[in-house]
Amino acid sequence: MEKNLNDKQKVISSFEKHTENVLKHIPAERLLMFNAADGWKPLCEFLNVSIPDVKFPYSNNRQEFLNRVDIIGKGKNLPEQNLN
Q1: N or C: which end of the chain has fewer CB within 10 A?
Q2: Measured distance CA(16)–CA(1) in Å, rounded
Q3: Which of 53, 44, 60 is CA-nearest to residue 84?
Q4: pTM assigned to the model
């Protein structure tokens, strides 16, 4: 993955190359191309598990993402989140 997260085009290009590589090497029956906007249903169906009784966590804006990357980059664990 592109290390410089401030260069939007490089990050997008890196993500697209990674996605192409995944699609090339992972069998379709073992791969879920997941869009978080679709919520729990496709994820749970793919995993063959029940849909949870809690709402899907849609929060992941740019700043939250960058904060998580910073935490992980420092070798720390992300804090647990209450999804209720």
Answers
A1: C
A2: 10
A3: 53
A4: 0.56
In whole angstroms, what is the distance from residue 34 CA to residue 24 CA? Answer: 17
5-63 pLDDT, tens per residue? 788 888 899 989 999 999 999 999 999 999 988 999 999 999 999 999 998 887 778 88
Is residue 3 over pLDDT 90? no
Q: Which two tokens stand for residue 37?
A: 């906007």
Residue found under tokens 């939007």: 8
In 3D, which of 77, 67, 75, 78 has the Cα closest to residue 5? 67
Question: What tokens appear for 27 in the block?
Answer: 């069998």
Contact 45, 51 (CB under 8 A): no
